[in-house]
Amino acid sequence: MIFTLHIWRQHDANSQGNFEQHQIDVSEDTSFLEMLDALNEQLIQTGQEAIAFDFDCREGICGSCNLVINGTPHGKHRATTTCQQYMRDYAGENELWIEPWRATAFPIIKDLIVDRSAFDRIIQAGGYIEIRTGSAPEANTMPVEKHIADHAFDAATCIGCGACVAACPNASATLFVAAKVSHLGSLPQGQMDHQRARKMLLAMDEQGFGGCSNYRECERVCPKEISVSNITTMNKLLYQSS
Amino acid sequence: MSDFELDSQTPKGSLENRWKQHKFNLNIVNPANRKKYNVIVVGTGLAGAAAAASMGEMGYNVKTFCFQDSPRRAHSIAAQGGINAAKNYQNDGDSVWRLFYDTIKGGDYRARESNVFRLAELSTSIIDQAVAQGVPFAREYSGYLANRSFGGAQVSRTFYARGQTGQQLLLGAYQAMSKQVDAGTVVHKSRCEMHDVIMIDGQAKGIVSRDLVTGELETHIADCVVLCTGGYGNVFYLSTNAKGCNASAAWRAHKHGALFANPCFTQIHPTCIPQQGELQSKLTLMSESLRNDGRIWAPKHQQDCEKRPEAIPEHDRDYFLERMYPAFGNLVPRDIASRAVKLICDEGRGVGHAIDGKKLGVYLDFAKAIEKFGLDGVEEKYGNLFDMYQHITAENPYETPMRIYPAVHYTMGGLWVDYNLMTSIDGLFAGGEANFSDHGANRLGASALMQGLADGYFILPTTVSNYLAQQTPIDITKSYPEAQQTLQACQAQLDRLLNAPDPQKTPDEFHRKLGQILWNACGMAREKAILESAISDIQALRKQFWQQVKVTGSDKTLNQTLERAGRIADFFELAELMCIDALTREESCGCHARVEHITDDGEAQRHDDEYAFVSAWQYSGNVSMPVLYKEELHFEFVRPTTRNYK
Questions:
Q1: Do A20 and A99 belong to one domain?
Q2: Which residue of B90, B124, B243 to mutate against A (max A Cβ within 10 Å)?
Q3: A135 and A224 housed in the same domain
Q4: How many domains does the structure of chain B reveal?
Q5: Is B152 a member of any domain?
Q6: In chain A, which residue's Cα lies nearest the Cα of B240?
Q7: Between chain A and chain B, how many beta carbons pairs sit less than 8 Å apart?
Q8: How far apart are the C-alpha atoms of A125 and A206, rounded to whole Å?
Q9: CB contacts, 8 Å: A58 with chain B
Q10: Which comes out higher in pLDDT, residue A117 or B5?
């Protein structure tokens, strides 16, 4: 399969970026990132700098990879991270435009790599349950109804990739915050901290993310299919705590 | 390097009381004095994040580092199956003693009894801790925690969170650590890689790191250093590890005198998706839980290997695990299953894509399970795994059997540590997969998460405190000549990588070749002559690497090619040590199958009289001439027997 690639290159946070054009010939069983690996091997061979992009586990769970492919965060195949896209999914598309996440709170570091540490700072503001190591009670002393545990689990599957922010016209991190608030706040052990949602939303504002206007683009691109109903859960908890 | 006595600091007395008594004997630091001490933790996966969170809570100043863009991305996140704990919630006869026994036996009697017992003992507290943090383990309709039997265990002691147990436990540890970042006791730096240990008067007193964004080399001083930097499976190039996993931190510590234990003990996981092509960058694991209901088979006759599996009638299929191991069938331990699959493919009965002219794959078939539980039943249990398989291979496993082949998954070897998890360098600790301690020659399923968290939450905070109590706090604001010298040595290494005399090949080209050599010689079957020729091949390729490696870009900016080249340089040296270790161990045990030491019915033959020891290797100044120290293993409570899964 032969593709014409238009790839965003940008030397560092302060320089101007532009699309660079390349050709590549790969088999259909190649994953999207392996296709970029192959391109990078060619670039290094010809004395050029490799294209910088984030990746690690390559099995869709670590949340590192983050490419906008033809305008869609994580690309064409829904509910799938960039690393789990395969070139066979792009049969019939000759041109691929590959860009980084674009949001004020995610400044570009180099080429396709952005700085997502703002997400860490939101978690630091309250995305945890206060329990000291060693002071936990016997695990089965507090049963949790299965439907509540399942709901918490669904919210907890967020991988913190930031696609929700990249897709949102407001570059809002509301779905990311809501997933964590809903995960911890639905469980009995997480209900002590009534201020969690408030603290995390405040941190979200401070980090430069926008607010939510119910576009629901976040849900559409989320590789883990985190539902916007978590935002409702968060708002309920926020209302109860005020 | 000077000679020294290898002392494991293992306590004596009854097994149940060893850890309790040892904790009492250790020194502690008064809460008011803890803020005077600085601790560096490198790597923030399960072990590192748990250790940092716990030591931060205690009041130490903790500085953490990870090469990823966030601690939440560490490869612990990819563990699918679960975590063992001797809770006996199922009332099926489980106990700390049974978990201890299973782990020692599973490790083929090549681990320390004291360490393994402590691990089993702490397993129950880990579950309590994780549940209190909000880790959403699977529950029954009653609201109580659910368990499953996993990896051939005969009791149900595995706690799980769908197929994402590692993710949920890591997020628990990451959140606990984030709380301490907010409290100011932990200072974390992402996108930052350790390049070397700073040694002052024979003690580990800091690290040199490279900021992967600016390229800047920095020195960090502390009272001690804890390495939780994971395993080295990526030395094989293709493995189930994340692409960034590397051995560099452990290896650079090794070159300062930290002994490296059992480097050849590498776990090959039987159920991975086979390689599809030349460009493949990693292999994907399919959870072991699939073997609970899936049946593994290959065609009886070579001429059937080209056929579609549906076209091969029942009587022409060889359910070889069920045939060879009637008692355990498809649930035999990982090393035994892997070897059997290799055997079948070596006989020419493999299926699927041919790599280098050989078909490497066998079928994992769910037809029987679908018959029994219905399509819905199978979907409910394994839906996410089936989807993942279909996505990667474009084949529908509900209709056609999956293809699987073993792949490198976990490294039981690692930095040698004593009972306190301290390496042979004073003040340098190692936790999680980075150390060698608990799994012997083979790790049981659902035990890696358990060990990482036991080390991080419970053992390191106690033993590091004991060490600190005996130290006068170091002045971290002062400048130390040793730090500057180490930094300069790191810069020299970077310059060397960037300026090879005859740059021709990319770092990955070298890595792929190294991986092939190692997989053939030090993979599922090992043989004297092949290991010997691999050692000379590795030496030659390493020489070529330093002559011809081509790294573009500079060291003053983000440069992933340079990062990779540095890690591969260390893999080249480690690979040789792995082969030397495999060559020296003239027996078969666990994952280590020496062709010369196989019984008549094809089983691993241990030589307990000669090899019941841990091989701990010391760097001598020459990578090819390491010095072997033996830590004899004494079995006071469990009598080593031949593992028999027939």
A1: yes
A2: B243
A3: yes
A4: 2
A5: no
A6: A57
A7: 217
A8: 11
A9: 242-243, 281-282, 284
A10: A117
DSSP states of B403-470 as a string? EEEEEEEEE--EE---TTSB-SSBTEEE-GGGB--S-TTSPPTT-HHHHHHIIIIIIHHHHHHHHHHT
Q: Least CA distance to B79: which residue of chain A?
A: A61
* Chain B residues with beta carbon closer than 8 angstroms to that of A113: 558
- The DSSP element (H or E) to which B625 belongs, if any, is none
ipTM of the complex: 0.98
The values of phi and psi at residue A43, to 5°, are: -60, -45
Write out residues 560-619 of B within 8 Å (CB-CB) of A: 560-561
- Does B372 score more than 90 pLDDT? yes
Percent share of chain A, pLDDT over 90: 98
- For B413-465, write each residue's pLDDT tens digit: 999 999 999 999 999 999 999 999 899 999 998 999 999 999 999 999 999 99
pLDDT score of B1 more than 50: no
A8-25 pLDDT, tens digit per residue, is 999 999 999 999 999 999
Q: Is residue A160 domain-shared with residue A121, that is, in the same domain?
A: yes
List the beta strands (DSSP E) in B174-234.
186-189, 192-200, 203-211, 217-221, 224-227
Contacts of residue B70 in chain A, CB cutoff 8 Å?
Answer: 116-117, 119-120, 160
Are residue A23 and residue A92 in the same domain, yes or no? yes
Grade residue B3 by pLDDT with cuts at 50, 70 and 90.
low
Question: Has residue B603 got a pLDDT over 90?
Answer: no
Report whether pLDDT(B2) > 60: no
For B237-295, what is each residue's pLDDT tens digit? Answer: 999 999 999 999 999 999 999 999 999 999 999 999 999 888 899 999 998 889 989 99
Q: Supply the CATH number for residue B591's domain.
A: 1.20.58.100
A155/A178 Cα distance (integer angstroms): 8
Best residue in B55, B64, B73 for a mutation probing chain A (most A CBs within 10 Å): B73
Same domain, A147 and A104: no
Which of A30, A55, A189 has the CB atom closest to B277's CB atom?
A30
Whether A59 contacts chain B with CB within 8 A: yes
Q: Is the pLDDT of residue B401 over 90?
A: yes
Closest C-alpha among B81, B80, B62 to residue B71: B62
Which domain covers residue A49, as residue numbers? 2-109
B628 CA: distance to closest CA in chain A (Å): 35
State whether residue A110 sits within 8 Å of chain B by CB.
yes
Residue B218 forms part of a structural domain: no
Diameter of chain A by CA atoms? 63
Closest partner residue to A84 among B87, B391, B550, by Cβ?
A: B391
- Give residue B151's pLDDT: 72
CB distance B73–A132 less than 8 Å? no
Ramachandran region, residue B95 (left: φ > 0; alpha: ψ -120 to 50; beta: rest): beta
Reply yes or no on whether the pLDDT at B642 is more than 90: no
How many structural domains does chain A have? 2
Establish if B258 belongs to a structural domain. no
Q: Which helix (H) or strand (E) holds B76?
A: none
What's the confidence (pLDDT) of residue B153?
A: 83
Say yes or no: A144 and A170 in one domain: yes
Domain holding B375, by residue range, is 268-409
Phi-psi region of B432 (alpha: psi -120 to 50; beta: other; left: phi over 0): left
Shortest Cα–Cα distance, B595 to chain A (Å): 33
Tell me if A134 and B560 make a contact (CB, 8 A cut-off).
no
pLDDT (mean) for B619-644: 94
- Give the nearest partner residue to A123 out of B141, B178, B509, using CB atoms: B178
- Domain of B286: which CATH number? 3.90.700.10
* Chain A contact present for B157, CB below 8 A: no
Whether residue B115 lies inside any domain: the answer is: no
Residue A95 and residue A134 in one domain: no
The single-letter code of the amino acid at B374 is: G
Quick one: closest CA in B to A108, which residue? Answer: B213
Nearest of B221, B117, B126 to residue B168 by alpha carbon: B126
- CA gap B436, B417 in Å, rounded: 7
Mutate to test the interface with B, among A29, A61, A88, A90 (most CBs of B within 10 A): A61
Among residues B409, B438, B456, the one where a domain terminates is B409
Q: Is B561 in Cβ contact with A44 (below 8 Å)?
A: yes
pLDDT digits (tens, 9 = 90+) for B498-521: 999 999 999 999 999 999 999 999
C-alpha B93 chain-centroid distance: 29
A133 shares a domain with A105: no
Among all residues of chain A, which has the CA nearest to that of B122?
Answer: A134
